[in-house]
Amino acid sequence: MVEPVVDIEVVFAAIDRQVLLTATVPAGTTVRAALLLSGVGAEFPELDLTDCPVGIFGKVVADPDTRVVQAGDRIEIYRPLLADPKEVRRLRAAKAAEAKARNQ
């Protein structure tokens, strides 16, 4: 008997390059196991696939060790932010206000 499978995509954007891989995994595979089966670890050996934060279509997966993938899922591997976006916006707004005050 043929084992049912599902097709998924795995994406990761490093600082210098991005990769989108398609993979076929057995039905019932968890998100974490799908990452390991996808081959993304060979493309980015520096990634710790057993502990990295992941999401599916932009929504964070709270427990990738139990969440089962569905056909067509796009698993996204997240990397840490280098700067807090809110802090960057706050600093940019303060700088713009200072420049505006100087020009008046």
Automatic annotation (TrEMBL):
<comment type="similarity">
    <text>Belongs to the UPF0125 (RnfH) family.</text>
</comment>
<dbReference type="InterPro" id="IPR005346">
    <property type="entry name" value="RnfH"/>
</dbReference>
<dbReference type="Pfam" id="PF03658">
    <property type="entry name" value="Ub-RnfH"/>
</dbReference>
<dbReference type="InterPro" id="IPR016155">
    <property type="entry name" value="Mopterin_synth/thiamin_S_b"/>
</dbReference>
<protein>
    <recommendedName>
        <fullName>UPF0125 protein POF45_20085</fullName>
    </recommendedName>
</protein>
<dbReference type="InterPro" id="IPR037021">
    <property type="entry name" value="RnfH_sf"/>
</dbReference>
